[in-house]
Specification:
14 strands, disordered N terminus, eight-stranded mixed β-sheet, alpha/beta, 485 residues
Length: 485
């Protein structure tokens, strides 16, 4: 994951709230100029603001209360098998515009519909479909809500959401309410009540709602996963993950993002805005929601100086960004405690100069692995406090990487692995590798780290989105190769 343009995982078009979503994207945060202003200043409803605006211990505990289950669990629920998976893509900017190529590269997948308010992007995507020899897809470009019409179609099995974060929650809801399985780019939502609503809706509609966490399918991540499950690290003790990626130039680039939506989130929250890439893989190593679970998070944050300093150096007087006040910590550091007492460190920093790193480490009673660069030290293979060569453990590669040694697409092939495996599960009627409970858990640090920082590092309870199902050991990412139908 070294190409800056491909590192972006939130792409085009959207915002939630009572005012026009498009207008929020294109305006600056003039209304949020006061440091600490919550989402209410950007058009959110009072109920939507509460999880991020509550700072008392009692209020924080109320936000993590477990609501009564409205349906049946989605743990272990397989997809319905089908010969062809029919896909609709919503959001065709940097992320969606590249992911469509991968759907077209997987056998047994048909792209039925595409949607983006920017007509040129939708037309480019449609042209890719016909160039691949598939029938011309339906094209939805009639404003910011036309995705609803895509979701109403009767010939779509799966909706892929690749829009700005502000849209994710409503689009995931809409897809499930219209009977579609849905996958959403990171993060799946931004508030605790939204996460619970997605869990409840998945259970009621019997539709899967998944965080499309591509980093879980990285070659290193899947190798470490199999090694951990085979006991090579001994009893697992600690891990770490991050999204430390210098995005300053891209966030101030008027052409890269569709409006300043990603930069505007730095005027709204102080916590970890993008925990999923780091949290997801470590959660898989430790079988969270499959025998262990995340129970609390404690977060601290540095001052917010990086974006303002970059603006001062690079942006001309009068640029709309000068109306913005940044409150997002340049670096957030969080400690997650699990029910078994393990510790996971999460970091987020997109506002200061540094080489890209997701940290991706795992330690146990027999040794540890650390990434960026990849290195390993486990007994009895290594001695004298000298790192070993991780490449010598290639035999532990997951079957996906043995079967697809040189996958197409970005991020070193992990994007293709995600799409291939998801589509395989849907075609063969398999249980997905991760589910709505994982999506909610991996995203929960967004609001909870904000609350913890506002409360001077006070621990925040992470809800049990599984409602007790986490105690039951079950399969996850470490899958067996299926016998193709």
């Amino acid at each position: 994951m070294n190409d800056a343009a491909q590192q972006n995982h939130g792409t085009e078009d959207g915002d939630d709230g009572s005012m026009s979503r498009r207008s929020v994207l294109w305006t600056t945060a003039a209304g949020a100029a006061g440091a600490g202003l919550g989402l209410g200043g950007l058009g959110g409803t009072a109920s939507a603001v509460t999880p991020l605006g509550t700072h008392s211990a009692a209020g924080a505990q109320a936000q993590t209360a477990t609501p009564q289950r409205q349906g049946a669990t989605m743990v272990g629920v397989p997809f319905e098998g089908r010969s062809t998976v029919r896909v609709g893509l919503v959001g065709l900017g940097n992320r969606g515009g590249s992911m469509i190529d991968l759907y077209l590269a997987v056998p047994g997948v048909q792209v039925v519909a595409v949607c983006d308010p920017v007509k040129e992007k939708a037309q480019r995507a449609a042209a890719k479909v016909t160039a691949a020899g598939q029938p011309a897809p339906a094209v939805y470009t009639n404003g910011e809500d036309d995705y609803e019409n895509l979701c109403k179609r009767g010939d779509i099995d799966f909706v892929h959401v690749a829009t700005p974060w502000d849209f994710h929650f409503e689009m995931a809801k809409t897809a499930m309410l219209h009977g579609k399985h849905v996958g959403v780019e990171c993060p799946i939502a931004l508030q605790l009540d939204q996460l619970w609503e997605l869990v409840d809706l998945s259970e009621r509609t019997r539709r899967h709602c998944m965080q499309l966490e591509n980093c879980c399918y990285g070659r290193n991540e899947m190798r470490v996963l199999r090694m951990a499950h085979a006991g090579l690290f001994g009893d697992l003790l600690h891990g770490a993950g991050a999204y430390n990626h210098d995005l300053r130039g891209l966030m101030f680039d008027p052409d890269y993002y569709e409006g300043p939506w990603r930069r505007l989130w730095h005027t709204r929250l102080r916590g970890d805005l993008y925990p999923n890439h780091g949290f997801g893989p470590v959660a898989n190593y430790m079988d969270l929601n499959r025998g262990d679970r995340a129970v609390s998070i404690t977060s601290v944050g540095s001052p917010s100086l990086g974006l303002a300093e970059y603006r001062k150096k690079h942006m001309p007087a009068g640029d709309p960004s000068w109306k913005e006040t940044y409150i997002e910590s340049d670096r957030t550091i969080s400690l997650v405690q699990t029910a078994k007492g393990r510790v996971i460190r999460l970091e987020h920093d997109v506002s200061t100069p540094h080489p890209y790193s997701r940290i991706n480490s795992l330690g146990g009673t027999k040794g540890l692995f650390e990434d960026y660069p990849a290195r390993i030290y486990i007994e009895p293979d290594h001695t004298n406090d000298s790192w070993g060569d991780f490449g010598t453990y290639a035999g532990w590669d997951h079957w996906l990487w043995k079967e697809h040694a040189n996958p197409p697409g970005g991020h070193g092939g992990m994007d293709y692995m995600l799409v291939f495996r998801l589509m395989q599960c849907m075609r063969l009627g398999l249980v997905p590798d991760f589910d709505v409970y994982d999506a909610a858990t991996w995203t929960s640090p967004v609001p909870l780290s904000h609350l913890s920082i506002k409360a001077k590092g006070a621990p925040q309870q992470i809800p049990d989105f599984t409602r007790g199902e986490w105690k039951n050991v079950r399969p996850g990412m470490d899958s067996e190769k299926p016998a193709e139908a």
